[in-house]
Fold these 2 entries.
Entry 1:
Amino acid sequence: MKKTTVYVLSLIAALALIGFSIFFLKDQFKGDNVWSSDWSVGVSVEDGIVAHETSLSEFTISKAGDYNFSFSWLPSGYSKKNVTEVPSHELGFVTVLLLFDKSKDLVYATASGAMTADTTLTLSPGTYCAEYHYLTSIEQYEEYAAKYLCGAYSAPYWAREQAGTFASLQKNGNWTMEYSMKVSSLSDASYATSLGMLMGFLLGLCLVFMILALITKGNRLKSPKYDERQEIERGRGFKYAFFCMLIILFALSVFSAGGFFDARDFLVTYSLAMFAGVNVYVLYCIWHEAYFALNQKTTYVIVMFFLIALSNLALTIFSYFDGILIQNGKFGYGVLNLFCTITFFNMFIVMLIKRCVNARSEDSL
Amino acid sequence: MKNLKLKSARAALDLSQQDLADKVGVSRQTINAIEKGDYNPTINLCRAICKVLGKTLDEIFWEDE
């Protein structure tokens, strides 16, 4: 294929993918909302009694699945950014949120002077009712804790401990509170995320292809040419890699059944199997001199692999310190950089060893 | 089994493994594997090697009794 044709095709593909990516990302931000509401309430406390005692909101879930339940209650003038600056000790009441299902069974409960939170709830189809209450005394607080949060035995300790942070309970006054609640479907969001990721991956491939086309010398991109022995060795490499993937997946499912590993952690399960397969294939081919084509320059590729390994190592370290590598005790997407680092370093080391072995067995005549 | 006939025929023409590989259109490791007896080439590759070395198939690839 001519270089100019490659440029034009890659450019068109890249532009199309950017368009698709923007479309899906836009969709992700707007399309997954199941229910949301924002309102403000003037809460007045007089002699320990709240004029505005309860606030109710209902929403309906039509499809079972995981939902992001995001809510906040803050005094007027504060936002998520400065929630820690809210002087909770000056509030004369504590807001309590209770989420019930249609059978009046408690799904979620929390209490605080001011807070913002995001949590994931697994919900079944049906109507849910969110209730806000305003508590003004330790007794009310204790009763609430005993009923919904920690049981009758530890409720008094909990209430006393918590009440210590709200020194002004039962204090008279008027407060304007901003409430916000949003329920969004994680299933729909994941769908958009998957498409967005796929588009991003293809976009990356296009860019790599374009860069390769730019730096390749000559007018045509050479397709790799392997001799008959190399083709046979590559076939063997594929076979071993395939069986390696099967064995890894089987082993992971066996360990998962025994409780040593969670096979539902798809990112680690599949990427571990994929990278193990890739390692077996590539290392076998390198060792049997079937990785590089006849018309390929090996030194350039070895240096490139070393640089890729280094850049992935840097990304792994950054993602570790940013908390992306391990999130909530599970590996995040940063684990892909870790696997890439291991793979490329393996390739680099095996290539170097093979070069040394070849140099020793070099037969000039 | 090592293919010493191939090695000697190549040496007689003062060709290195790499030279022969380039003329035949395969990798140096493939010629090396054939000489060491680690790889049995196809008839097409045998013919290509024989043509470059100016020998017949019998002379290079037929085992002595």
Entry 2:
Amino acid sequence: MRALLVRDLALAVKAGGGFGLSLAFFLIVIVLVPFGVGPDTGILREVATGILWVGALLACLLSLDRIFQLDYEDGSLDLLVTSPLPLEGLVAAKALAHWLTTGLPLTLVAPLLGVLLNLDPTGYRWIVVSLALGTPALSMIGTFGAALTVGLKRGGLLLSLLVLPLYVPTLIFGAETVRRAVDGLENTTPLLMLSGITLGTLALLPFAAAAAIRINLR
Amino acid sequence: MDNVACARGGLRVIEGVSFTLQAGQALVIRGPNGIGKTTLLRAIAGLQPVLEGTIAMPEDAVAYAGHADGLKGPLSVEQNLRFWAQIYGTKSIGRALEAFDMTGLLDRQAQDLSAGQKRRLGLARMEVTGRPIWVLDEPTVSLDAANTALFAAMVARHIDGGGIAVMATHIELGLDTQIFDLAPFKASDSASQPFLDEAFL
């Protein structure tokens, strides 16, 4: 499983990999928002949390169809499924590789980009905490969606439609965690809900994704 | 393998297939295009369920090589092979490299290889799996005569070591193999079968 993780990370950072894609998309969205919304720092401060979270979510979505599609096309998914690796472990390793190449970098650059949106000073800590807790769920749910659509030619649209509704709870509680902190309110409840969703998806979805792959490879 | 029937795309393609292989035997599956050779091999490899019948064999014994070689273009020959060696828990890739005379190509990126070289790398992977039953789908495609001979030698070594090989090929490998013609096992009722997944929809 570690070999698979190392290989996926190596492929992601090599030319043509998906590493820079999500990060660049996130950067572009956040840089463009002040141009669209206008230079009013009050309005920007209001929407900063939401924009950062939505931007991170869409950036995550962008690289999902690569998770299994490339392996499916070059035949290595067949070979991996017949290998001694448990399929659930394979799915978990894929999700972890996706998180390390998208979720983690997004989490780390979010506070830097928060400056562009005039994010409230108390928000910096919480945007990192909420993204760090929430993006693993985004990667895991996305891996499940990718497993459902593996083998479909140009399955990207279907993948987005399947995955976006499942992303909504994470988005709501993630953004709420930061917003409440910024407003000086108690934010333990959304934080716990966010963690609960992440832990739940990590516990259940590897099995669901593995089952989906077994059906799709027939 | 007893009285096996398989379907592809919801269509029953073969039925009543039975054969038994002992350690040290090789079986070549023949039949016209579309008869269901790949489907049968994928069923043996465990990639798809059989409609009826049973396939009995030791657990975790099968190594499968399909039409695609499963190579990663940006990685080198060595990295590709080493990855599979790690997955299967094999220490050395030297034997696999020698089997197809690939020691000179170690640092070459897989995307820069010719079709034949890619195939050789894909087949060399079988050597690092360390599994007793090899399931090979059209292994000799895009191999030249010399490399087909290397492949035959590799399979011969595998069988001599007590392995089993099941392959679909039309090339005469010069091996002592049994030949299994799939043509008589074409499903008589090829009308559409109820698709298994409909239960979920």
